[in-house]
Amino acid sequence: MLDIRRVRSNPQEVLKALERRHADLKLDAFLALDEQRRRLLVEVETLKNQRNTVSEQVGKMKKAGQDAEPLMLQMRDVNQGIKEKDEIIRGLDEKIQAILYNIPNIPHTSVPEGKDEQDNLEVRRWGERPQFDFPAKPHWEIGEGLDILDFERGGKVTGARFTFYKGLGARLERALINFMMDTHAHAGYTEVFPPFIVNKYSMIGTGQLPKFADDMFKLDGLDYYLIPTAEVPVTNMHRAEVLDVQELPKAYCAYSACFRAEAGAAGRDTRGLIRQHQFNKVELVKLAHPEKSYEELEKLTNDAERILQALGLPYRVVCLCAGDIGFSSAKTYDLEVWLPSFNTYREISSCSNFEDFQARRADIKFRPAPKAKAEFVHTLNGSGLAIGRTVSAILENYQQADGSVIVPEVLRPYMRVDVITKR
RNA sequence: GGAGAGGUGGCUGAGCUGGUCGAAGGCGCUCGACUCGAAAUCGAGUAGGCUGUGAAAGGCCUCGUGGGUUCGAAUCCCACCCUCUCCGCCA
Predict the structure, then answer these.
(1) DSSP class of residue A127?
(2) Are A294 and A392 in contact (CB under 8 A)?
(3) Suppose A349 and one of A156, A169, A220, A383 were both cysteines; which one would form an S-S bond, judging by CB atoms 3.0 to 4.6 Å apart?
(4) β-pairing verdict for A315-319 and A278-288
(5) Is the CB of A174 under 7 A from strand B?
(6) C1'-nearest nucleotide to the CA of A374
(7) What is the ipTM of this complex?
(8) Do you find a cis peptide bond into A135, omega within 30 degrees of 0?
(9) What is the pLDDT of residues A356-388, one digit of tens each?
């Protein structure tokens, strides 16, 4: 959420900054409603002031044994006016909130211009792409060949986009979670195991609601949602809190299952592990001092990259252009891993600085100095990494002619085998 | 799920027979005095949001949340949420 005062006082500046997103936005309705609201507010507050003063007077008169009946009668009328105006104001408030909640964040000045993913800027590449002297198979074929992935039965038991991992596949999934968590915890992130279900306030806090309700699974009859990412519970952990400046930056790593309805993704990535309704992910979350948040974004991105490096997976870092960054983000780096069967790099991590956009929604502040006024923190997060896509990348990049898959060095202590072969 | 108790400012804890209560006292914190310095002691200050303004002053709202009663509610009524204790059930 943007600062309402900023939108009010500099609508042109805000509009101009948002134009970079290539999202068609207008603020006329907002400005009109806002002005109307403030005018009514002055009116109703004058009436309330009158009520308060007169009520006090009534109390005094009664104590003195005087007749206060006329005043009380008069106040009854005043109350009617208050009630009516309050009603209108409440309606305006709702409309204004709705508009404000649906305005995306302003891209940072360092974010490149551009309309869609075509215009994203490659920042760097790492690693050697593997050369195969045999036709490289897609990960689902490798997985089914080794009997470690079972898409058929996932479909039977639940539905499309659900998968069973079996044997060394299941162990690989678990090994990756543990390896990533261990690595990040060692790098200074505090380990968190969050709830996988959150209430709507948390979803609003990080920006999933109200705009993206269709993308989520909601529990029937409850205001509870399955989390689409650990970002939601972990960031909201500090909702409505004022943190001590010394606590910043707060850095968390959290494993969670993630649930996404994938509305509008029908027909895309229908095979394999790339796009599932349920997947695992290790997430990094930071709450940072506003002056340090961009520094922290670079560090967080590097921390995620280190996982790919340790696993020996070729990847590139892309800075998303203004037209492609997410709704809540001010700047985003995507990490894209090389997938031989796709002959392309595919997103495996997304690292963003949300500045105070989420903090304002979730009311997360810090006190810069002992007596100073509390300010909003900057929130950041990034995948470190998406487990399912990491499995895909390992299977494809480490596949051998006989259909087996070499286990990356760093995972061997967790896997207790060097090669995944068909049993 | 059943029975009971409770949710007040950074913390603790009064108020809850409705009327200068945004809220006593204590602790903590900040500033000042005292001191060579510190402790102790003394004095002053110490919630947030909205609105308003050039900036102020001022005004409105907030005692878990949302309604209601009333001229007036932290105090009365209703609903909901959360916490604690006991019982039941359960991985």
Answers:
(1) S
(2) no
(3) A383
(4) unpaired
(5) no
(6) B48
(7) 0.88
(8) no
(9) 999 999 999 988 877 778 889 999 999 999 999
Q: Smallest CA–C1' separation from A69: which nucleotide? A: B71
3-class secondary-structure state, position A314 = coil
Closest CA to A68 of A80, A59, A77: A59
What's the CA–C1' distance between A213 and B84, in Å? 36
Please identify every residue of A annotated as catalytic: 260, 275, 347, 350, 389
Which residues in A22-52 are b (16+ Cβ under 10 Å) and which e?
beeeebeebeebbeebeeeeeebeebeeebe
8 A C-beta contact, residue A420 and residue A172: yes
Could you tell me the pTM of the whole model? 0.93
Q: How far is the CA of A221 from the C1' of B79 (A)?
A: 18
Chain centre distance of CA A140: 28
Work out the burial of residue A95: count CB atoms within 10 Å of its CB; fewer than 13 is exposed, 13-18 middle, 19 or more buried: middle
E-strand ranges in A371-415 read: 375-376, 378-386, 405-406
Q: Rounded distance, CA A264 to CA A324, Å?
A: 17
- CA A5 → C1' B13, Å? 39
Q: Which is higher by pLDDT, A212 or A423?
A: A212
Chain A residues 34 to 53 whose Cβ lies within 7 Å of strand B are 38, 41-42, 45-46, 48-49, 51-53
At A141, list the tokens: 């074929």
Given a cut of 90, whether residue A82 has pLDDT beyond it is: yes
